[in-house]
Specification:
- The chain has about 400 residues and is of the alpha/beta class.
- It has two domains: about 260 residues, Rossmann fold; about 80 residues, formyl-coa transferase, domain 3 (2-Layer Sandwich), CATH 3.30.1540.
- It has 17 helices and 13 strands.
- It has a six-stranded parallel sheet, sandwiched between helices.
- Helix 1 packs across helix 7 and helix 7 crosses helix 8.
């Protein structure tokens, strides 16, 4: 296949070709990262409707916000996988790519004739990554998985929210966590292939990705038989830590994580040095044990003054602090503006703003190529596979494309 027109020699993944058999968020987020770094990502889409995320909303001047977020730097390839000629085109494509990423339910790609066993046999250098809810085996293999459901199964909801009511995390963090593990796995496999010349199969589970993010909670259970309580906006094991409401009804965010910080906080910020002598608050463990009374005391103190004064005191004391900003404030954040983190991409409805890539490689600047219209690259990709104009027209007449 000819190199994708958007590839640039200076980009880290220039020359790497990816076939994305993907839907929704997790798979597309993975391949968006690869595309940002120069990979030629060819996204399979369903005739007529495309990726299901295209229909989630019409917030971006008629386009789906989710599609715009996840699908720049890709080429849209529409073929009907229910037709033999469509599957044959995808197999020919898989013979010439470096990576296949699929995030269908386990077994779906196999039934389509696009599973790892078949495609890797045809292309031994192929890196094939399957991203699914619970992995390719085990008793939950075929259980339907959505971000919300995995948040529940993996213990995220149980540790989030307030004592009287659990909550899900607002963003689809399970999709994002698993997609980043998939990205890392693909990059590691590409690196290993440089040494061995061989591709390999990667099995990424949303569930395992979430369990891996449980952090210190399992250790408290293993060693202290302790299930984490829900603590709202606070830290489970460190206090004071979190947003506190000031007298003008604005939150001030702070972290008092060390013994030295606790002393500075008491003496210089809240002017309550006597708390340093209180046995209930002497150590981090003691403060945690007496969290209820300490939190109530600090909450009352913060209500005495406006947030600007608390921020000034925290700044002068050089303690970690910040504000609790809404989306509009974040998009206008001085750091966002200074580092030009809001970029622009072309799309079927014209230029649209997008959040930039956090990957800042000095020798591989992220690219911002257009968000594709449904199927706009199908004919070009088939041409790269060796299909003649007449063959492409025949596929069009047969409604394969």
């Amino acid at each position: 296949m000819a190199e994708g027109k958007a590839d640039k020699p200076s980009l880290a993944l220039s020359g790497i070709r990816v076939l994305a058999l993907e839907v929704s968020v997790a798979g597309p987020h993975c391949t968006r990262i690869l595309g940002d770094m120069g990979a030629d990502v060819i996204k399979l889409e369903k005739p007529g409707t495309g990726d299901i995320i295209r229909g989630w909303d019409s917030a971006v001047r008629g386009l789906s916000s989710g599609y715009v977020w996840l699908n720049g730097n890709k080429r849209s390839f529409v073929v009907d996988v229910k037709k033999k000629a469509g599957i044959e085109a995808l197999r020919r494509l898989a013979d010439r790519v470096d990576v296949v990423l699929e995030n269908f339910a386990p077994g779906v790609a196999d039934r389509m004739g696009l599973g790892a066993t078949e495609l890797c046999a045809r292309n031994p250098r192929l890196i094939y990554c399957s991203l699914s809810g619970y992995g390719q085996d085990g008793p939950y293999r075929d259980v339907k998985a959505y971000d919300l459901l995995i948040q529940g199964e993996a213990g995220i909801i149980a540790t989030t929210g307030y004592p009287d009511k659990p909550a899900k995390v607002g963003l689809p963090i399970i999709d994002l966590a698993s997609s980043m593990y998939a990205t890392v796995g693909i990059l590691l496999a590409l690196y290993q292939r440089e040494k061995t010349g061989q591709g390999q199969f990667i099995d990424i589970s949303m569930f395992e990705s979430a369990v891996a993010w449980l952090g210190y909670f399992p250790h408290h259970y293993w060693h202290q038989n302790e299930e984490p309580a829900r603590v709202g906006m606070r830290h489970h094991y460190v206090t004071p830590y979190g947003p506190y409401l000031a007298g003008d009804n604005v939150y001030v965010n702070l972290a008092v994580a060390t013994a030295q910080d606790w002393e500075i906080f008491c003496r210089q910020v809240i002017n309550r040095p006597e708390l340093l002598e209180d046995a209930r608050f002497k150590t981090s463990e003691a403060r945690r044990k007496n969290r209820g009374v300490l939190e109530e005391l600090i909450e009352q103190i913060f209500l005495e003054r406006p947030h600007t004064e608390w921020l000034s005191r925290l700044r002068e004391a050089r303690l970690p602090h910040g504000e609790v900003k809404g989306v509009a404030q974040v998009l206008a954040h001085p750091q966002v503006i200074a580092r030009k983190f809001i970029r622009e991409m072309e799309s079927p409805v014209g230029p649209v703003p997008v959040i930039g890539s956090p990957l800042r490689l000095s020798k591989s600047p992220a690219r911002y190529d257009p968000i594709p219209a449904l199927g706009q690259d199908t004919a070009a990709i088939l041409g790269e596979l060796g299909y003649s104009d007449a063959e492409i027209e025949e596929l069009r007449r047969e409604k394969v494309i």
